Amino acid sequence: MQPDRVFNFGAGPGTLPLPVLERAQRDLVALPGLGVSPLEVSHRGPWFRDVIERAEADLRALLEIPASHHLLFCQGGATMQFAMVAMNLAGAGTSDHVVTGSWGAKALAEAERLGNARVAWSDEAEGFRRVPSTEELAGAISSDATFVHVTSNETVQGVGFPHTPIVPEHVRLVADASSDLLSRPVDVRRHAVLYAGAQKNAGPAGVTIAIVRDDVLKDVPDQVPTMLDYRTYVDHGSLYNTPPVFAIYVVGLVARWLLDDVGGLEVMRERNRGKAALLYDVVDGAPHFFRGHADPGSRSLMNVTFRLPSDELEGRFVEEAAKGGMIELKGHRSVGGIRASLYNAMPIEGARALAAFMREFRDRYAD
Ligand code: PMP
To answer: Which of 19, 40, 167, 251 fits as disulfide partner to 203, beta carbons 3.0 to 4.6 Å?
Structure first.
């Protein structure tokens, strides 16, 4: 760690790998041999062509994306994907939504604006504490759904699917993987669309990764606006208009870091499991002081959410942690409590420091 950097547990934009930041810093004023900044360089020139091609190739290698799937760099965040998915896939039919938290609810609301959408399964009444079991899911999805939308990791509640949800073969699976893409291997093949805003595990805000299966493209209605039509990105290699050059360049650096420094997504998953276990162990070890939000079988490896005995203690926890160099621990305003986001670039030392602080805080304040 650099002495002037803190452990940033923010949910997004999240912490980025230090080697990536240092490389971007070196390149920022003048790219070697070019004399211009990546903030100034042409998106049509050879430097950026190489950057975007390499970023795509590296992401394909990391995620083992099959040839049947296109990898697109979009803008508008994951929020725009809520609309793009509905516009490109829904046709005249109805989409089924599995609502396991705040983001899934937003995706549903957007699909409702644009056409017909229904709730296939929701845990809202219980406060979004778990994902459905495979059997529950199988019973919930209608045979005529045009697609099923899931959120693989709910960033606000800290609730995640342990594996890619199983849906009937003929139903297109769409997953918002904004807060867990690249944190572990994923079976891309089983998805019709898999998308993620970059600003958690993949890079800075400003670019959204969309992985779209080829068969989806043949059903896109022709009235979909150009920039909301997946075919535009496929036909133009994500270069129909000016793309977010700098954000894609940083995504490329993160992908290289995952390949070269980390050693791939299996290794990353083990590291992420180890970090999350440090915090959940403290929660489970003091259940009268820390109350975990998610049911144990649905716990997120990325966002660890828990409550303390009172709002006052929660405020004190956030404040004291910040003084100790651990920032952004306040839970989302809609659920309160504490949320510690442990994205790929959070080092194990950060999780250890937080676990130690949690124990020490409990010792001081438990009755
Ligand atoms: N889905 C999930 C799971 C998210 O965590 C977020 C952002 N926190 C979004 C969607 C919205 O992403 P964006 O801000 O990129 O539109």
So the answer is: 251
